[in-house]
């Protein structure tokens, strides 16, 4: 069995760190601090982290680099997907435009985790603000994909508690998803349009049917199909056989 070494990066303390994205070409790790309202780039060669804020956006849910433009990123702001410009070093990034918005009348919701698949299709989900009550009970979030041809968001799942970890297998035909409030990881089949079906529970984190002292949160996958699930409140990363 492989052994793993965990190292702390030279980065500022986050209020709620989220959404790590490793960019192979830039040899940089991008991530955001949701309630710190900041975006970050860890430069592997320099072993240094650069940090930026965007005026008018105190909450940032995710950051995803835009292919073909080293300065452009899409970020989550409230219930919007927003394009920003950042050189990766300056302490300020700038607003470019709003790409799209969901749930315009649900002011107590916000985007949480989001990613794009290997074809560049955006997937992301919403959740109720933690300050508004028990998110395990309310389940007022929705999981979407963005249809670029139609210029609109397509609903994939409703009654979401906390839309979180998402990843695809190497072939792109299987999708893995975490609603933290379900305390499990689910697998779906992906069709040519990017829609999902055929739900299967890969792992349930309940202990003898009881809620554990943590919730599954972020997730990624390796070339062999093994899932890596980070827990909130557990200080643990689980390696899961997706088969």
TrEMBL record:
Keyword terms: Metal-binding, Zinc
GO MF annotations, alphabetized: calcium ion binding; gluconolactonase activity
TM region positions: none
One Pfam family this sequence matches: SGL
Cofactor note: Binds 1 divalent metal cation per subunit.
Ligand binding (a divalent metal cation): 18, 164, 217
Example of a GO biological process term: L-ascorbic acid biosynthetic process
InterPro entries listed in its UniProt record: 6-blade_b-propeller_TolB-like, SGL, SMP-30
Residue span(s) of domain SMP-30/Gluconolactonase/LRE-like region: 16-241
SUPFAM superfamilies from the UniProt entry: Calcium-dependent phosphotriesterase
Keyword Electron transport applies: no
Family classification: Belongs to the SMP-30/CGR1 family.
PANTHER family xrefs: MIP34848P1-RELATED, REGUCALCIN
Protein name: SMP-30/Gluconolactonase/LRE-like region domain-containing protein
Species name: Anopheles quadriannulatus
Lineage of the species this protein comes from: Eukaryota, Metazoa, Ecdysozoa, Arthropoda, Hexapoda
């Amino acid at each position: 069995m492989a052994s793993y070494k965990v190292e702390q990066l030279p980065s500022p303390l986050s209020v709620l760190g989220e959404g790590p994205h490793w960019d192979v070409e830039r040899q940089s790790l991008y991530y955001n601090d949701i309630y710190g309202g900041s975006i970050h780039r860890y430069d592997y060669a320099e072993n240094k982290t650069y940090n930026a804020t965007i005026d008018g956006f105190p909450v940032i849910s995710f950051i995803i680099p835009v292919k073909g433009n080293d300065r452009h990123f899409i970020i989550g702001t409230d219930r919007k997907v927003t394009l920003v410009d950042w050189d990766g070093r300056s302490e300020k990034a700038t607003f470019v435009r709003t790409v799209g918005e969901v749930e315009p009348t649900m002011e107590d919701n916000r985007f949480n985790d989001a990613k794009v698949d290997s074809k560049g299709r955006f997937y992301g989900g919403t959740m109720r603000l933690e300050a508004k009550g028990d998110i395990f009970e309310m389940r007022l979030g929705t999981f979407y994909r963005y249809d670029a041809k139609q210029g609109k968001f397509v609903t994939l799942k409703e009654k979401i508690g906390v839309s979180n970890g998402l990843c695809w297998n190497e072939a792109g035909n299987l999708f893995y998803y975490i609603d933290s409030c379900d305390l499990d990881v689910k697998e779906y089949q992906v069709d040519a349009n990017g829609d999902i079906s055929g739900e299967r529970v890969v792992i349930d984190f309940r202990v003898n049917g009881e809620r554990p002292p943590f919730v599954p949160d972020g997730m990624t996958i390796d070339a062999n199909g093994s899932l890596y699930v980070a827990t909130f409140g557990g200080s643990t990363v689980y390696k899961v056989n997706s088969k």
